[in-house]
Write a structure and sequence with these properties.
2 domains; Trna Endonuclease, Chain: A, domain 1; 3-stranded antiparallel sheet; 224 residues; Arc Repressor Mutant, subunit A; 11 strands; alpha+beta; 4-stranded mixed sheet
Length: 224
């Protein structure tokens, strides 16, 4: 898997204070550094998104002319999707993007610098805010649970996959029903979470907490 970038900055206590998160990325097979609570939520979204193949945090320092002066800015994340498309993502709180607040002038110039650099180099630029990441009150917390299981357990082998698919059958079943059909083996839950994270099984994780009563079903589009 070709990764075009490596993180260009390391943790600095004087700059980032106490909102420094370190998490192990199953996609990258290394620790990632996140420098705010919102960056951490964005990483959960990216790490567990089956449409995103790979990524890099703090991948590049952009530079562009803003208001007649050279401006530089480090973008929060680069992603490559499974369809081959790429994008750079900046993570900001909605309140920091209000153009009517003079305190946001520095942030808005930072965003403009990034956008201009991306346009000049043919890249997509995206801004993720808490409104986007927490559109569902359950999604990020549910994906944290799934990610912790994916991180600590291997992807199910062919025999386990066959047993899971036989237990699921056609249509929807709750996680509890599948557990009971496979004698409640301890590997069942992590295996189901792997399948959800890979996009092979679908689960309603945006509108309710993830529990044994969560329904899952085969992703027919992924199978075809």
């Amino acid at each position: 898997m070709d990764i075009k970038y490596t993180p260009i900055i390391k943790f600095k206590q004087t700059r980032y204070g106490s909102n420094h998160w370190i998490g192990f990325s199953p996609k990258l097979k290394r620790d990632v550094n996140l420098y705010s609570d919102l960056e951490y939520a964005n990483w959960i979204y990216v790490e567990t998104n089956p449409k995103i193949m790979t990524f890099c945090e703090q991948p590049v320092q952009t530079h562009s002319i803003v208001d007649g002066k050279l401006k530089t800015s480090i973008i929060d994340m680069w992603i490559r999707r499974i369809d081959g498309s790429e994008a750079f993502i900046e993570v900001k709180y909605e309140s920091d993007l209000d153009p009517n607040n003079p305190k946001n002038d520095k942030t808005l110039k930072q965003i403009l610098c990034q956008k201009q650099w991306c346009e000049e180099n043919g890249f997509e630029h995206i801004v993720h805010t808490e409104k986007f990441l927490y559109e569902s009150p359950y999604f990020i917390e549910n994906m944290k649970i799934i990610l912790s299981n994916v991180r600590d357990n291997p992807f199910p082998d062919e025999l386990k996959l066959k047993r899971l698919h036989n237990a699921l059958g056609h249509g929807k079943k709750t996680i509890r029903m599948i557990k009971n059909e496979i004698d409640n083996h301890p590997w069942v839950i992590p295996a189901i979470y792997h399948l959800i994270c890979a996009g092979l099984w679908l689960a309603e994780i945006k509108n309710a907490p993830l529990t044994d009563l969560t329904e899952v079903e085969l992703n027919e589009q992924k199978e075809s």
